[in-house]
Amino acid sequence: MKVFLELGWFFKQEKKAYISGVFLLLLVAMLQLVPPKVIGIIADHIHEGTITKAMLVEWVIVLIGVAIAMYVLRYYWRIMIFGSSVKLSKILRNRLYQHFTNMSPAFYQKSRVGDLMAHATNDLSAIQQTAGAGVLTLVDSLSTGGFVIIAMAFTISWKLTLICLIPMPFMAMLTSWFGSMLHKSFYKAQEAFSSLNDKTQESITGIKVIKTFGQEQEDIEDFRKQSEDVVQKNIVVAKIDSLYDPTISIIVGISFFLSIAFGAKFVLNGDLSIGELISFTTYLGLLIWPMLAFGWLFNIVERGRASYDRVAALLREKVEITDHEKALDTVPYGDIQYQIAEFTYPGDAQPLLKDISVSLHAGETLGIVGKTGSGKTTLLKLLIREFEGYQGEIRFGGQKLQDYKLEKLREAIGYVPQDHFLFSASVAENIAFTDPTATIEEIERAAKLANIHDDILQFTDGYQTIVGERGVSLSGGQKQRISIARALLMNPEVLVLDDSLSAVDAKTEEAILSSLRQNREGKTTIITSHRLSAIQHASLIIVLENGQVIERGTHEDLMELDGWYKEMYLHQQLEELVEHGGH
Ligand code: ADP
After folding, report:
1. What is the DSSP string of 368-391?
2. pTM of the predicted model, to two decimals?
3. CATH at 131
4. First-to-final CA distance of the chain
5. Residue 255: how many CA atoms within 13 Å on its side-chain side?
6. Ligand 1 centre from 388 Cα, in Å?
7. Which range marks the domain in which residue 358 is found?
8. Which residues line ligand 1 at a C-beta cut-off of 6 Å?
9. Do 348 and 203 share a structural domain?
10. Which atom of ligand 1 is nearest to the CA of 105?
11. Which compartments is it annotated to reside in (predicted)?
């Protein structure tokens, strides 16, 4: 029942609705006591032959009145309690979502998307059930059970009440045993569901790869297995759950047996009237629901607790990259200086970057080249604070990156990642992602700079063409250029192109770069590229190898060095020549 305490903050927040709901619930529990009593009274009158028509009509009116009152009250407590519990899942869902958006890439590296989705769906609905049906069953079973027992003991016979309660301690033991069994099995079932979710998400995202390699059958088989696992684990839950009801029925049956056996004796002795025995057994019938509800309550609460534990653990995950209290509320501007002694990715043993010391004046262009895996992207990710925890510092405009609010830092940097992502929205909306208020002229200007304007005009609906999962298929180069336009629309202090021109041909690349040079005068640009022609004009070029700078200088400086850069440059020129047949 700890989960009710843990949800205390919510009940407090919604106390009006809960108090009224519980109050109405108690009224209904009391009203329920009336019909059995009335039946007993009528039975006695019939037995004694004193029944009159007027009396019967009177009691029937009372019964109808009680039924109507219960109907109305039940309607209102349902609205109050169930209505409030929906709010709980809304609050938790929003918290989770906000938390998800605040988490850094390191978190997403270790979490599985399907699992996160399962938290946001299945777990939240289990918690909502606890706050709704859980509270209802708790209050209802305790109050109905309590009132019925009181009515039996005080208005009929305390002796018979004690006798019929003899099997109850067994029930309490069984209930608690069922509870712990359910908790374990439910946790496993939820985990299996998470895995299945993850598998489905991954397969659908990777469907093209699956098809390309003809792995459909294997994938279907894998899905079938996981789906089977979910079923099996839920069957275990259902089996434990199903054991509960028959067990309760037997215990209630024993109670009935005891009360009729002893009740009959009391009637014969003259301690009890026949009508009272009828009322008593009818009351006993009313106890079945609270007992079943108790088992049900365990089930709901155990599910709720398992889910709340999972969600709470997720919400406790620290947001690693945050603003410190005195962070500057200004958009950074100026020189950029890397002074990094060492950077190691979380969980890795070896440092990836070592002894990086690079300075760039505002308005200059930095080119970063080197083999795949040499650390180019990592260097950029540190600048946008996707990762931290390096020894050393990075300064921007004289201040450390951490001195600025994250939001302001990122406002200064237009980052075009390698794995560009387009949303299922129009081309215009995708470009205006960073500034939805941008005018169509501004969007077009950015698109022209990124050399994608003419392509867009060719699409059926021009700038209004929908792209992404449900829209037109774009080539890799088109996607790259839309991503670049998106960054250019911000007109950022620093434009970061992370191998963002890899899918366009050399001529388009040159056209884009030269229009950037003309239009971004005074602004800083950082480019990583496999094609050295892309960074040839940079003010400073660094060559990375195994996370260290092995060569640095301008294109001319590097050509004189006879190192990696020169060799690569000549090699690429030759390649170009071969490709174009020497023209
Ligand atoms: P480049 O851009 O030069 O190809 P990267 O900076 O992308 O190189 O990657 C350098 C190395 O860091 C690679 O060996 C890669 O496996 C590793 N790496 C990249 N991202 C991560 C990460 N998020 N966590 C752990 N290792 C990473």
Report:
1. EEESTTSSHHHHHHHHTTSS---E
2. 0.73
3. 1.20.1560.10
4. 80
5. 27
6. 14
7. 328-411+530-583
8. 109, 345, 348, 352, 370, 372-378
9. no
10. 23
11. Cell membrane
